[in-house]
Amino acid sequence: MTAAEHAQFHPHSSDVARDLARRGTILLVQVGSGVHGTAIDGQDDRDEMGLCLEPREFVTGVATVPGRAGDEPSRIPFEQYEYHSAWERMGGLANRSGAGDLDVIIYSARKWVRLAVQGNATVLLPLFVPEHEVVAIADAGRELRENTRRIASRRAADRFLGYMSGQRRAMTGDSGAHTNRPELVAEFGYDCKFAMHALRLGVQGVEYLTTGRITLPIPEPELTALREVRRGEWDLARVLAWSDDLEQQLVGLREKSPLPADPDVEWINDWLHRSYLAYWKTGCV
């Protein structure tokens, strides 16, 4: 088996899924540390996230895509396409992305919406990246980015709190958590990359629940502080104190945020309906 073939063992990385995603892409942007402003020179991979429209047989029909390579009877509904360049090295899916690697995920627009309306902190990012970080965009993607207020709601509070809690557990190695960077724990006493992500999520969650937007890159003075944490320049007690404060703010915003309790589902459904019909009619985005 070649190195490239290792990637095919992931259930969302088949050639069929890749072609569906590429043909129907309506928005593709850079996300990750490079966009947040927290990247450390020479240490980060590049992360891209997108949305796509799939042909009608995958929405109103029963068409499926291959599951794992070498297991032809395995078929799954199309929900997303994933590519990680690290998978193409010997070792395949077990490889960890590192400096210079490329990680791409392109969601079906229907799946992306299901996640976004619940306030999923990760999938919201394509709505807010600066224009120069947009890799590809079609009319439907542009309309979505112009209507971010339709998606924002207080539902996001629990999602940001959940993500932040998970990163915090990984940072400190709590029971049931997993860190794949033992070298950072050995050097700093905690995983400073997980710590930075936990705090970043708290900072962005507070902004989102307050304004309905996420500023990218993260503004000062928070950005400098996050980069210091990423470099291991803060002790664990100081990190936890900031984390506690951000969590308390998010808990308060769960009830007191000026955002509506729920997203504008009527507009969102209409956008999905119009976007898919236009794609099916013309065959292009």
Annotation keywords:
11 helices; 2 domains; alpha+beta; two-stranded antiparallel ribbon
Describe the protein.
This protein has 285 residues and is an alpha+beta fold. The protein has two domains: 3-151 and 263-282, no CATH class; 156-256. Helices cover 44% and strands 12% of the residues. It is built from eleven helices and seven strands. The strands form two sheets. A five-stranded mixed sheet has the order 5-6-2-1-7. A hairpin with an 8-residue loop joins strand 3 and strand 4. Helix 6 runs antiparallel to helix 8 (192-211), helix 6 (156-172) runs antiparallel to helix 10 (236-256) and helix 8 (192-211) packs parallel to helix 10 (236-256). 36% of the residues are buried.
Blueprint of the fold:
Layout: H1 3-6, H2 15-24, E1 25-31, H3 33-36, E2 46-52, E3 65-66, E4 75-76, E5 80-84, E6 102-108, H4 109-116, E7 134-137, H5 139-145, H6 156-172, H7 182-188, H8 192-211, H9 222-230, H10 236-256, H11 265-282
Parallel strand pairs: 2-6
Antiparallel strand pairs: 1-2, 1-7, 3-4, 5-6
Low-confidence stretches are none
Work out the helix count. 11
Number of domains: 2
Largest sheet: 5 strands, mixed
- Mean pLDDT score: 88
- Total beta strand runs: 7
| Helix percentage range | 40-55%
**Could you tell me the strand content as a percent range?**
5-15%
Lateral arrangement of strands in the main beta sheet: 5-6-2-1-7
Overall geometric form: globular
| End-to-end separation | 36 Å
Rounded to an integer in angstroms, the radius of gyration calculated over CA atoms is 20 Å
* H-E order: HHEHEEEEEHEHHHHHHH
What is the chains' assembly state? single chain
Structural class, please?
alpha+beta
